[in-house]
Design brief:
The protein is of the alpha/beta class and about 230 residues long. About 20% of the residues lie in helices and about 30% in strands. The protein has a single domain, classed as 4-Layer Sandwich (Metallo-beta-lactamase, Chain A), CATH 3.60.15. α4 packs parallel to α5 (about 175-185) and α5 packs across α6 (about 205-215). It is globular, with a radius of gyration of 16 Å. The model has no long low-confidence stretch (mean pLDDT about 100).
């Protein structure tokens, strides 16, 4: 059994009966989130890239749970400087967390940490997505990305049960490109993420799911805090 909980924006938690991991925790900065960082119980924190709307709550959650933080090596190094237990990895690599295996896949985006007081942006490695095997299921989290042709290759090589795809536009692909990505990934279920958090990325997620259905694909909208079980 696998429990999937959507915490809003791009934050997704995947849990078996005994263990769980959370991806891109962003709760304090999201007015739509219904969960607080202190409510999260998890064994690992996976980060797709270094933008604040993906890493804001990684430190408090990891420290409170003594959880490992998985990220591309540059971002993992930065997190280790904060006293966190990190696992640095890179594109194409797989990390074994015992209860889950996470393979890092490419995403087309940017990744840096804005140091406001210094008026400086710190390079934090490449952005990424993950293919995660957990609870007998294969879950794809695309991270923040535009559409790119190798999504088809990824879909051809993996039997994906659930794909989390950004649809917000402006900073990532919008619904039209996400529909093409969904076709190429060919997951049994597609769930939209990275939308509505800010005015500039507001989208009609229900319409997106209807458009998926018109292409013969199953989609589902999850509200922040909502779960489903596979």
């Amino acid at each position: 059994m696998l429990k999937i909980t959507y915490h809003g924006h791009s934050s997704v938690q995947l849990g078996t009966e005994e263990k769980s991991l959370i991806i891109d925790p962003f709760l304090r900065g999201n007015e739509l989130a219904v969960t607080k960082p202190e409510d999260i119980k998890t064994d690992a924190v996976l980060l797709t890239h270094a933008h604040m709307d993906h890493i804001l709550d990684a430190e408090p959650i990891a420290k409170a749970n003594h959880a490992k933080v998985v990220a591309i090596v540059e971002l993992a190094t930065y997190m280790s400087w904060k006293g966190l237990d990190t696992i640095g990895m890179n594109m194409g690599g797989t990390v074994d967390l015992d209860f889950a295996q996470a393979k890092m896949i490419q995403a087309f985006h940017t990744s840096g940490i804005v140091l406001e007081e210094e008026q400086r942006i710190m390079y934090a490695g490449l952005p990424a997505g993950y293919i995660i095997n957990i609870g007998g299921k294969t879950i794809l989290h695309a991270g923040d990305t535009s559409l790119f042709g190798d999504m088809k290759m990824i879909g051809d090589r993996h039997q994906i049960d659930v794909a989390f795809l950004p649809i917000g536009g402006h900073f990532t692909m919008g619904p039209e490109d996400a529909l093409q990505a969904a076709e190429w990934f060919n997951a049994k279920l597609t769930i939209p993420v990275h939308y509505d958090t800010f005015p500039v990325i507001r989208q009609d997620s229900e319409k997106f799911v209807q458009q998926l259905a018109a292409k013969g694909l199953e989609g589902q909208v999850l509200a922040p805090g909502q779960s489903l079980t596979l």
